[in-house]
Structures are given as C-alpha cells and as structure tokens.
Design brief:
By secondary structure, the chain is α/β, with parallel strands linked by helices. The protein has a single domain, classed as Aldolase class I (TIM Barrel). The chain contains seven helices and ten strands. The strands form two sheets. The protein has an eight-stranded parallel beta sheet. The chain has a two-stranded antiparallel sheet with strand order 9-10. The longest helix has 12 residues. The N and C termini lie close together (about 10 Å). Bound molecules: the ligand O=C(O)c1ccccc1N[C@@H]1O[C@H](COP(=O)(O)O)[C@@H](O)[C@H]1O. The ligand O=C(O)c1ccccc1N[C@@H]1O[C@H](COP(=O)(O)O)[C@@H](O)[C@H]1O binds next to strand 2, strand 6 and strand 8.
C-alpha cells in the first residue's frame, strides 16, 4: 500500500457502495446535477449515503447549486464534503464553506499552463482542489466526460492545499498519471463504468489496486 487515496464518484446503485469500500476507496461521490447520467434524487441518495459505515468520506457533487438546494440536500442526506464542480467564484466557495459547515472541494478545469494560477487562488478558499480536465466547449457536462489533460503540466509542482487528480482516469492509466503528477489522491467516474451511470465492480477493484498497489 502506498497511501494513495481513491475517490469513486457517481455511484448510482446501492451495490456500488460495498464494491467501492471493499476495493479500498476513501471517498464516495454522489452526483446532484440533472443533466448527468449519474444524477441522484435526494431520497435515493439519502438511502445510499445512510448505508455507508463510519469512515469513508461521503462527497456531494453539485454544479452552481443555490443555497436553497444545498439546504435541502444537507437536511436529507448524511454527507461529509461538498464538491463544487461549476463556475463558483472563490467568494462563493468561501461563503458555502462558512454557511454549511462542511469541508469544500473546488473542481478546476485544466487545459494549459495558464489555468494553473487558479489553483493558488481557489486554494485559499477551499479545503481541497480537484484538478480535472477542462471540458470541451461542446461537452454536455462540466465533468465526468472521461477526458484527460496533459499530466506533464503538473509535474514537479507543489501546492499547500491538498489536491486530487481527476479527468479520464482508468485502471489502465492511473499508475502513469500518479507517477507523472505526484498526485496522492485520485478521482474516477466514467473510467470504472460499463455504460454511462453504471459502475462496474471489477473495474472499481482494478482501479483501486492499480492506484494503491502499483
Ligand atoms: O460524473 C458526472 O456526471 C459529473 C457531472 C458534472 C460535473 C462533474 C462530474 N463528474 C466529475 O468529473 C470528474 C472526472 O470524471 P471522469 O472520471 O473523467 O468521468 C470527476 O471528478 C467526477 O467527480
């Protein structure tokens, strides 16, 4: 074991939870975004998150959610962290963190060198940064598209805020992604699916072992 922490995002079936936990995932991600094939209703999410034993971090992924939605979400679903995957400003990130009392992970899209400055800026407002690929302008979703960015952009860089690597990771490429970027945490959604929104237990297991026992 190398201490790498894995997040499996976009769980949609109750059976995904034991599959992710038995594979060793440290974070379980639940998506609340209408356009996503992984979107969960609050009732289903409440049941699924309620079935998670103490230990793993239960993360809610939202996209430019307003306070009323976050109030309803946190009233009904037992959660440990909010992942903000829209165009939230640093001020909005700080406001959500203060208002809702949960750690916040802000997702940032990277396509080139010039996108890296935002990591410093948002690192002052968020508890963690999720470093993801910038979506193509035609993409229907702001994330979860199975697209990677050039990992060399992160080589040799250090940030004081904890961060997690995401975007197009798979059981086949996660070892190389960790080697090139120095990531200590990785996040995957579509790379461990058999179809959009359907997690594959065998690919979850393969991903976790490729990340944690290279
Ligand atoms: O997974 C989704 O449906 C999703 C929807 C809206 C925003 C983000 C979404 N997923 C996140 O995107 C990254 C990368 O996903 P992938 O592994 O490339 O499929 C990951 O952080 C997911 O949490």
């Amino acid at each position: 074991m190398n201490g790498i922490r894995v997040k499996i995002c976009g769980l949609t079936e109750t059976s995904d939870i034991p599959a992710a936990l038995m594979a060793g995932a440290a974070y379980l991600g639940f998506v609340f975004f209408d356009r996503s094939p992984r979107n969960l209703a609050l009732e289903a999410a409440s049941f699924m998150a309620g079935s998670v034993p103490p230990g793993p971090c239960k993360v809610a992924l939202t996209v430019d959610a307003d306070d009323a939605f976050l109030d309803r979400l946190l009233d009904r679903v037992p959660l440990d962290m909010l992942q903000l995957h829209g165009s939230e400003t640093p001020e909005r990130v700080a406001d959500i963190r203060a208002r809702f009392g949960l750690p916040v992970m802000k997702a940032l899209g990277i396509a080139g060198e010039s996108d890296l400055a935002a990591l410093e800026e948002y690192g002052r407002a968020a508890d963690q940064i999720l470093v993801d690929a910038k979506p193509n302008p035609e993409a229907k979703l702001p994330g979860g598209n199975g697209v990677a960015f050039d990992w060399h952009l992160l080589a040799g860089r250090r940030w004081s805020t904890p961060w997690m690597l995401a975007g197009g990771l798979t059981p086949e490429n996660v070892g190389e992604a960790i080697r090139l970027t120095g990531a200590r945490q990785v996040d995957v959604s579509s790379g461990v699916e058999s179809a959009p929104g359907l997690k594959d237990g065998e690919r979850i297991r393969a991903f976790c072992s490729a990340a944690m026992e290279p």
